């Protein structure tokens, strides 16, 4: 507004200079009219400058207050950030320590597991060796049992054969003895002694015959036939 007034006044001051036929009195009047607006413009400019200065001072104070608030907020943010970083570092260190402890425990457990596995493998190998030895021993014993059974069977057959021969020889002897007794009873006169025929029995291994149980009364005698040895 002050600039507009100055412009209008300057236009008014220039217009008299273009007129040629102007009296001195008219010039003086015009000059006196020009001085008064200049004084008013100066006062308005001073007021405007004062208002601008006050406004600038207020803006400067507000700006400084805003800067102070921003600095305080920034410091608080930095402090919170530093505290957060410290907490994160502490948590990271604790997690790292727990991780190292867990890794150490896992390594120890793994070593124990490997050691136990090695011991179990040794035990399995030893058990397999013992089992193989037992199987070999069982096979050997089976072979010995088979051979012993064959030997016992052969000896039993040989014993039966020998017992049969002895029974036959015993039967012949009994028949001859009974015949001699009968002849002696029929012929009481003395006669020449006839030499008995000697019976040769082959020498063989005769098995030991178990003692027969005593006969019960009322049972027929088993000596009536020499074939009882074959039973």
UniProtKB/TrEMBL annotation:
UniProtKB keywords: Coiled coil
Keyword Coiled coil: yes
Bias kind Polar residues: ranges: 11-23
Keyword Coiled coil included in the entry's annotation: yes
Domain of life of the source: Bacteria
Basic and acidic residues bias spans: 1-10
Annotated spans, Disordered: 1-23, 210-231
Coiled coil regions, renumbered to chain: 60-98, 138-176
Protein name (database record): Chromosome partition protein Smc
């Amino acid at each position: 507004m002050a600039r507009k007034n100055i412009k209008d006044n300057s236009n008014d001051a220039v217009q008299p200079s273009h007129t040629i036929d102007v009296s001195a009195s008219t010039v003086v009047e015009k000059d006196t009219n020009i001085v008064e607006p200049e004084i008013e413009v100066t006062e308005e400019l001073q007021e405007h400058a004062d208002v601008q200065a006050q406004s600038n001072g207020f803006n400067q104070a507000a700006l400084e207050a805003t800067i102070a608030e921003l600095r305080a907020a920034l410091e608080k943010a930095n402090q919170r950030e530093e505290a957060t970083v410290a907490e994160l570092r502490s948590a990271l260190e604790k997690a790292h320590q727990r991780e190292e402890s867990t890794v150490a425990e896992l390594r120890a457990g793994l070593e124990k597991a490997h050691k136990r596995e090695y011991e179990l493998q040794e035990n399995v190998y030893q058990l397999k060796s013992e089992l193989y030895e037992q199987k070999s021993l069982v096979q050997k014993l089976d072979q010995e049992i088979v051979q012993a059974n064959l030997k016992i069977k052969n000896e039993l057959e040989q014993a039966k054969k020998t017992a049969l021969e002895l029974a036959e020889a015993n039967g012949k002897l009994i028949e001859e003895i009974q015949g001699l007794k009968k002849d002696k009873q029929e012929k009481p006169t003395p006669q020449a002694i006839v030499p008995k025929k000697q019976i040769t029995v082959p020498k063989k291994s005769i098995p030991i015959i178990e003692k027969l149980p005593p006969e019960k009364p009322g049972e027929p005698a088993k000596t009536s036939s020499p074939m009882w040895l074959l039973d």
